[in-house]
Every structure is written in C-alpha cells, then in structure tokens.
C-alpha cells in the first residue's frame, strides 16, 4: 500500500514537471519571478536520485556486494556550489546551459548500456526534463542584461569538459556512469540553491537585475515626493 502511494506521488511529480517542461518549450514567460520559480522547482526535482541514479544502480546490478559505495562523484566533472556562486548571473546561465548539454550527450552514451526498453523510461523522461530546463534557461537569459547569444558558445569552464575516453571493460563503464549520475544530481542540488539565492536577493546589483524591470523604468517611479523635496535647489529630475 505504501509502495503504491509512493509510486502515485512520484508519477504526479513527474507529470507536473513534464507539464512545466512542455510549457517552457512552447514559449517564454516574460515574468522574472514566475520563470525563476519554475527553474527552482525543476532544479529541486531533478536533484533527486530517485529520478535517475537509483534506477541506474538497480538495473546495472551496482546495488549488490557493497558496489554502491564506489558510486561517488568524480571531482572536477561538475562545477562545485562555491564555483557557481562566484559567477555572475549571465555566466552562471551559460555554464549551466553548457553543462546540461554535456549531460544530454552522456545520457545518450549511457543509453547504449541499457538494452531493455522498459528500463529506458526514466532516462528518456530525464532527457525531456533537461531539454525543458534548458529552454527555461534560455528564456531567463533574455530577461537579464547582457543576454546570451542565440547560438550556444563553445563549451568552456567547469562541467563542459569533453566526454571521457571510452572504457572497454563493461563493469568499469557502468561504474563510471554511476559516478557521473551521482555528480549530476549533486550539481542540480547546487543549481537549485543558487536559484533560491536569486529569489532572496533579486536586486543584488544593477547588472544582475532583471531587464524586464529596467524596461519598465522602475527606479524612475520610486522617487517619492518626499525625496523630491530633499533635492538641492537647481537640481532637476532627469
């Protein structure tokens, strides 16, 4: 009974995220806070190991004989939370976009080691979610000053390294896939935390503030009559 309830809850969450992804692929929201909320929800959802890693461990037989203990993120493959926090918002979106492009490429590679069609369901859902998330990243970039170019830049920086050299041993290949997915979920957890910080300090600096707000001329309208009276004589509002 409890297992059925958990499956229903998981299914509802998946359908909810897919709904967000479908909306994101259709058009861009022009509301900064609403789009940021979508990005936070997507990142928070995609961090859960039940979405991908746990399933991969099970179907690859890595949940036996203590093998799961060796499934740890390999340092340097994904950017750390500290590295992400040091980036400007535009740089963060660019690194995030490039990294997720790399993840999609690796998922296609991992797919070759999953022969059964029924075992590919979660991987295909993960790919769809990533594409929807990337579309929302593109939309958010358009709301910030100094938006990203329409064409994706050449991958640079942490998390955008080329695919590793192919490994001949099947077991080592499965283990590397497990480590990669462990890093992916940890990375998405860090991404969600960064987006949450955006919501806590939406006006951290002028260059980080949403372009939509600047287009509306918000800080012209913030001058109250009291502030105007405090202006020295001879100074006129521009």
TrEMBL record:
Pfam families: LIF_OSM (PF01291). It comes from the Eukaryota. Residues 153-162 have a biased composition (Low complexity). Residues 147-169, 198-238 are annotated as: Disordered. Residues 204-231 have a biased composition (Basic residues). It is found in: Secreted. The keyword DNA repair does not apply. One of its GO terms (cellular component) is extracellular space. One of its GO terms (molecular function) is growth factor activity. Gene3D superfamilies: 1.20.1250.10. Residues 1-26 form the signal peptide. This is Oncostatin M. SUPFAM superfamilies: 4-helical cytokines. It comes from Panthera leo. GO terms for biological process: immune response; negative regulation of hormone secretion; oncostatin-M-mediated signaling pathway; positive regulation of cell population proliferation; positive regulation of inflammatory response; positive regulation of interleukin-17 production; positive regulation of MAPK cascade; positive regulation of phosphatidylinositol 3-kinase/protein kinase B signal transduction. Keywords: Cytokine, Secreted, Signal. PANTHER family: ONCOSTATIN M, ONCOSTATIN-M.
């Amino acid at each position: 009974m409890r297992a059925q309830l958990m499956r229903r809850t998981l299914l509802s969450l998946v359908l909810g995220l897919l709904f967000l992804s479908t909306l994101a692929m259709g058009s861009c929201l022009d509301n900064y806070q609403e789009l940021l909320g979508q990005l936070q929800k997507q990142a928070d959802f995609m961090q859960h190991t039940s979405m991908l890693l746990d399933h991969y461990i099970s179907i690859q037989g890595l949940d036996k004989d203590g093998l799961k203990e060796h499934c740890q993120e390999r340092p340097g493959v994904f950017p750390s939370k500290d590295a992400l926090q040091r980036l400007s918002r535009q740089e963060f979106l660019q690194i995030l976009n490039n990294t997720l492009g790399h993840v999609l490429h690796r998922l296609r590679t991992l797919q070759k080691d999953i022969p059964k069609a029924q075992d590919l369901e979660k991987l295909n859902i993960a790919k769809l979610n990533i594409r929807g998330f990337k579309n929302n990243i593109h939309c958010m970039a358009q709301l910030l000053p100094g938006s990203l170019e329409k064409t994706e830049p050449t991958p640079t920086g942490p998390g955008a390294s080329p695919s590793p050299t192919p490994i001949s041993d099947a077991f080592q290949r499965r283990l590397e896939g497990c480590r990669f997915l462990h890093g992916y979920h940890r990375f998405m957890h860090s991404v969600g935390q960064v987006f949450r910080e955006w919501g806590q300090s939406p006006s951290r600096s002028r260059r980080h503030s949403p372009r939509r707000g600047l287009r509306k001329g918000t800080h012209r309208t913030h001058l109250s009559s009291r502030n105007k009276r405090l202006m020295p004589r001879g100074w006129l509002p521009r």
